[in-house]
Amino acid sequence: MLQALLWGGLAGSALFIGGLIGLYFDIKKTFIAYVMAFGSGVLIGASSFEMLYPSVEDEGLAPTTIGFITGALLFTIINAFLDKKGANQRKRSKQNPEGHSGLAIFIGTMIDSLPEAVVIGISMIDTKVSMVLVIAIFVSNLPEGLSSTIGLKQDQYTKGKILLLWTTVFIVTGICSLAGYVLLDDVSGHVIAIINTFAAGGIVAMVSSTMMPEAYEDGGAVVGMITAVGLILSLVLSVM
Q: Which of 13, 45, 177, 223 is disulfide-compatible with 215, CB 3.0–4.6 A?
Protein backbone atom coordinates (compact mmCIF):
# COMPACT_ATOMS: atom_id res chain seq x y z
CA MET A 1 0.00 0.00 0.00
CA LEU A 2 2.81 2.40 0.88
CA GLN A 3 4.52 1.55 -2.40
CA ALA A 4 1.42 2.63 -4.34
CA LEU A 5 1.55 6.00 -2.58
CA LEU A 6 5.29 6.36 -3.23
CA TRP A 7 5.18 5.37 -6.90
CA GLY A 8 2.21 7.63 -7.58
CA GLY A 9 3.96 10.45 -5.74
CA LEU A 10 7.14 9.86 -7.72
CA ALA A 11 5.32 10.16 -11.03
CA GLY A 12 3.50 13.29 -9.83
CA SER A 13 6.68 14.81 -8.40
CA ALA A 14 7.83 15.55 -11.94
CA LEU A 15 5.31 18.41 -12.04
CA PHE A 16 6.86 19.90 -8.91
CA ILE A 17 10.41 19.35 -10.22
CA GLY A 18 9.48 20.89 -13.56
CA GLY A 19 7.92 23.81 -11.71
CA LEU A 20 11.12 24.41 -9.75
CA ILE A 21 13.20 24.32 -12.93
CA GLY A 22 10.82 26.73 -14.64
CA LEU A 23 10.97 29.12 -11.68
CA TYR A 24 14.72 29.30 -11.25
CA PHE A 25 16.30 28.41 -14.61
CA ASP A 26 16.04 29.72 -18.14
CA ILE A 27 15.23 26.70 -20.30
CA LYS A 28 15.10 26.84 -24.09
CA LYS A 29 11.73 26.11 -25.64
CA THR A 30 13.28 23.60 -28.03
CA PHE A 31 14.53 21.49 -25.12
CA ILE A 32 11.09 21.54 -23.52
CA ALA A 33 9.60 20.52 -26.87
CA TYR A 34 11.98 17.58 -27.23
CA VAL A 35 11.21 16.28 -23.74
CA MET A 36 7.50 16.74 -24.38
CA ALA A 37 7.74 14.83 -27.67
CA PHE A 38 9.64 12.00 -26.01
CA GLY A 39 7.09 11.87 -23.20
CA SER A 40 4.26 11.80 -25.76
CA GLY A 41 5.75 8.75 -27.41
CA VAL A 42 6.29 6.93 -24.13
CA LEU A 43 2.76 7.74 -22.94
CA ILE A 44 1.14 6.54 -26.17
CA GLY A 45 3.23 3.38 -26.02
CA ALA A 46 2.39 2.77 -22.36
CA SER A 47 -1.31 3.24 -23.08
CA SER A 48 -1.11 0.75 -25.95
CA PHE A 49 1.18 -1.93 -24.55
CA GLU A 50 0.37 -1.74 -20.82
CA MET A 51 -3.33 -0.87 -20.89
CA LEU A 52 -5.08 -1.57 -24.19
CA TYR A 53 -3.42 -4.79 -25.34
CA PRO A 54 -3.84 -6.61 -22.00
CA SER A 55 -7.48 -5.53 -21.95
CA VAL A 56 -8.06 -6.98 -25.41
CA GLU A 57 -6.48 -10.26 -24.33
CA ASP A 58 -8.50 -10.49 -21.10
CA GLU A 59 -11.85 -8.92 -21.97
CA GLY A 60 -12.07 -8.76 -25.75
CA LEU A 61 -12.04 -6.06 -28.40
CA ALA A 62 -15.53 -4.62 -27.93
CA PRO A 63 -15.25 -3.64 -24.22
CA THR A 64 -11.76 -2.29 -24.84
CA THR A 65 -12.95 -0.14 -27.72
CA ILE A 66 -15.94 1.19 -25.80
CA GLY A 67 -13.88 2.06 -22.73
CA PHE A 68 -11.15 3.70 -24.78
CA ILE A 69 -13.48 5.85 -26.89
CA THR A 70 -15.53 6.82 -23.84
CA GLY A 71 -12.40 7.97 -21.99
CA ALA A 72 -11.20 9.96 -24.98
CA LEU A 73 -14.64 11.53 -25.47
CA LEU A 74 -14.97 12.54 -21.83
CA PHE A 75 -11.51 14.11 -21.76
CA THR A 76 -12.26 15.97 -25.00
CA ILE A 77 -15.51 17.40 -23.62
CA ILE A 78 -13.90 18.48 -20.35
CA ASN A 79 -10.87 19.87 -22.15
CA ALA A 80 -13.07 21.87 -24.53
CA PHE A 81 -14.87 23.39 -21.53
CA LEU A 82 -11.59 24.22 -19.80
CA ASP A 83 -10.25 25.76 -23.01
CA LYS A 84 -13.00 28.34 -22.84
CA LYS A 85 -12.01 29.10 -19.24
CA GLY A 86 -8.38 29.71 -20.16
CA ALA A 87 -6.72 26.34 -19.52
CA ASN A 88 -5.89 25.68 -23.17
CA GLN A 89 -2.46 27.22 -22.61
CA ARG A 90 -1.59 25.17 -19.51
CA LYS A 91 1.28 23.37 -21.24
CA ARG A 92 2.55 26.46 -23.00
CA SER A 93 5.69 28.29 -22.04
CA LYS A 94 4.52 31.55 -23.56
CA GLN A 95 2.30 34.16 -21.96
CA ASN A 96 -1.30 33.10 -21.67
CA PRO A 97 -4.03 35.06 -23.44
CA GLU A 98 -5.82 37.86 -21.63
CA GLY A 99 -8.68 36.62 -19.49
CA HIS A 100 -7.15 33.22 -18.79
CA SER A 101 -7.84 31.51 -15.48
CA GLY A 102 -5.23 30.19 -13.08
CA LEU A 103 -7.91 27.99 -11.51
CA ALA A 104 -8.70 26.51 -14.93
CA ILE A 105 -5.02 25.75 -15.44
CA PHE A 106 -4.98 24.00 -12.07
CA ILE A 107 -8.09 21.96 -12.86
CA GLY A 108 -6.77 21.11 -16.31
CA THR A 109 -3.54 19.82 -14.82
CA MET A 110 -5.53 17.69 -12.40
CA ILE A 111 -7.59 16.26 -15.26
CA ASP A 112 -4.35 15.39 -17.06
CA SER A 113 -2.66 13.79 -14.05
CA LEU A 114 -5.24 11.98 -11.94
CA PRO A 115 -6.21 9.14 -14.32
CA GLU A 116 -2.51 8.38 -14.77
CA ALA A 117 -1.99 8.17 -11.01
CA VAL A 118 -4.97 5.86 -10.50
CA VAL A 119 -3.65 3.53 -13.20
CA ILE A 120 -0.29 3.28 -11.41
CA GLY A 121 -2.08 2.11 -8.28
CA ILE A 122 -4.18 -0.37 -10.24
CA SER A 123 -1.07 -1.81 -11.91
CA MET A 124 0.22 -2.86 -8.48
CA ILE A 125 -2.82 -4.90 -7.43
CA ASP A 126 -1.78 -8.24 -8.93
CA THR A 127 1.86 -7.58 -9.70
CA LYS A 128 4.72 -5.17 -9.19
CA VAL A 129 4.44 -1.61 -10.38
CA SER A 130 4.53 -1.00 -14.12
CA MET A 131 7.80 0.84 -14.62
CA VAL A 132 6.70 1.75 -18.15
CA LEU A 133 3.77 3.70 -16.75
CA VAL A 134 5.85 5.38 -14.05
CA ILE A 135 8.53 6.43 -16.53
CA ALA A 136 5.95 7.55 -19.10
CA ILE A 137 4.03 9.68 -16.60
CA PHE A 138 7.16 11.14 -15.03
CA VAL A 139 8.67 12.10 -18.38
CA SER A 140 5.41 13.65 -19.61
CA ASN A 141 4.80 15.55 -16.35
CA LEU A 142 8.25 17.15 -16.27
CA PRO A 143 7.82 19.41 -19.31
CA GLU A 144 4.21 20.13 -18.32
CA GLY A 145 5.28 21.49 -14.95
CA LEU A 146 8.16 23.38 -16.55
CA SER A 147 6.21 24.86 -19.44
CA SER A 148 3.14 25.79 -17.42
CA THR A 149 5.29 27.41 -14.75
CA ILE A 150 7.02 29.62 -17.28
CA GLY A 151 3.64 30.74 -18.63
CA LEU A 152 2.27 31.44 -15.15
CA LYS A 153 5.43 33.29 -14.17
CA GLN A 154 5.12 35.52 -17.22
CA ASP A 155 1.54 36.21 -16.15
CA GLN A 156 2.80 37.57 -12.81
CA TYR A 157 1.84 34.62 -10.64
CA THR A 158 3.98 34.63 -7.50
CA LYS A 159 6.49 31.86 -6.83
CA GLY A 160 4.53 30.90 -3.73
CA LYS A 161 1.28 30.40 -5.65
CA ILE A 162 3.00 28.42 -8.38
CA LEU A 163 4.73 26.12 -5.90
CA LEU A 164 1.45 25.66 -4.02
CA LEU A 165 -0.20 24.58 -7.27
CA TRP A 166 2.38 21.90 -8.03
CA THR A 167 2.66 20.77 -4.42
CA THR A 168 -1.09 20.19 -4.35
CA VAL A 169 -1.01 18.22 -7.58
CA PHE A 170 1.94 16.18 -6.28
CA ILE A 171 0.09 15.25 -3.09
CA VAL A 172 -3.19 14.47 -4.83
CA THR A 173 -1.53 12.23 -7.44
CA GLY A 174 0.05 10.18 -4.68
CA ILE A 175 -3.29 9.85 -2.91
CA CYS A 176 -5.04 8.86 -6.14
CA SER A 177 -2.46 6.16 -6.80
CA LEU A 178 -3.03 4.83 -3.29
CA ALA A 179 -6.80 4.99 -3.83
CA GLY A 180 -6.50 3.04 -7.07
CA TYR A 181 -4.64 0.31 -5.21
CA VAL A 182 -6.80 0.18 -2.07
CA LEU A 183 -10.31 0.84 -3.36
CA LEU A 184 -10.05 -1.36 -6.44
CA ASP A 185 -8.20 -4.27 -4.86
CA ASP A 186 -11.29 -6.51 -4.68
CA VAL A 187 -13.01 -5.58 -7.93
CA SER A 188 -13.17 -7.94 -10.88
CA GLY A 189 -10.67 -8.01 -13.70
CA HIS A 190 -13.46 -6.82 -15.98
CA VAL A 191 -13.87 -3.58 -13.99
CA ILE A 192 -10.11 -2.99 -13.90
CA ALA A 193 -9.91 -3.50 -17.66
CA ILE A 194 -12.67 -0.94 -18.20
CA ILE A 195 -10.91 1.58 -15.96
CA ASN A 196 -7.60 1.00 -17.73
CA THR A 197 -9.05 1.43 -21.20
CA PHE A 198 -11.05 4.47 -20.08
CA ALA A 199 -7.86 6.06 -18.70
CA ALA A 200 -5.93 5.11 -21.84
CA GLY A 201 -8.47 6.97 -23.97
CA GLY A 202 -8.13 10.06 -21.83
CA ILE A 203 -4.32 9.88 -21.91
CA VAL A 204 -4.15 9.56 -25.71
CA ALA A 205 -6.64 12.41 -26.16
CA MET A 206 -4.61 14.57 -23.76
CA VAL A 207 -1.32 13.82 -25.52
CA SER A 208 -2.79 14.53 -28.95
CA SER A 209 -4.52 17.78 -28.03
CA THR A 210 -2.01 19.37 -25.67
CA MET A 211 1.48 17.85 -25.68
CA MET A 212 2.09 17.04 -29.33
CA PRO A 213 0.92 20.40 -30.78
CA GLU A 214 3.13 22.25 -28.29
CA ALA A 215 6.11 20.02 -29.06
CA TYR A 216 5.80 20.50 -32.82
CA GLU A 217 5.24 24.25 -32.55
CA ASP A 218 8.44 24.80 -30.56
CA GLY A 219 10.58 21.87 -31.72
CA GLY A 220 9.88 21.49 -35.43
CA ALA A 221 9.83 18.36 -37.58
CA VAL A 222 12.46 16.52 -35.52
CA VAL A 223 9.94 15.95 -32.72
CA GLY A 224 8.31 13.28 -34.89
CA MET A 225 11.45 11.17 -34.65
CA ILE A 226 11.82 11.86 -30.93
CA THR A 227 8.21 10.77 -30.35
CA ALA A 228 8.88 7.55 -32.26
CA VAL A 229 11.93 6.86 -30.08
CA GLY A 230 9.82 7.34 -26.96
CA LEU A 231 7.18 4.94 -28.24
CA ILE A 232 9.65 2.19 -29.15
CA LEU A 233 11.33 2.59 -25.75
CA SER A 234 8.00 1.90 -24.05
CA LEU A 235 7.69 -1.27 -26.13
CA VAL A 236 11.18 -2.39 -25.12
CA LEU A 237 10.42 -1.79 -21.44
CA SER A 238 7.10 -3.63 -21.75
CA VAL A 239 8.68 -6.84 -23.07
CA MET A 240 11.72 -6.86 -20.79
A: 223
| CA nearest to 219, candidates 133, 143, 138 | 143
Burial state string for 49-77 with b = 16 or more CB within 10 A and e = fewer than 16: bbbbebbeeebeeebbeebbeebbebbbe
Domain ranges of the chain: 2-20+30-239
The CA distance from 176 to 65, in Å, is: 25
Residue 141 neighbours by CB under 8 Å, 6+ apart: 11, 12, 14, 15, 18, 39, 113
Reported as a single tens digit per residue, the pLDDT across 118-154 is 777 776 766 666 777 788 788 877 877 777 777 677 7
Which DSSP state fits 96?
P
Q: What is the pLDDT of residues 59-75, one digit of tens each?
A: 899 989 999 999 999 98
The torsion angles phi and psi of 119, rounded to 5 degrees, stand at -65, -35
Give the amino acid at 235.
L
Measured CA to CA, the distance from residue 104 to residue 101 in angstroms comes to 5
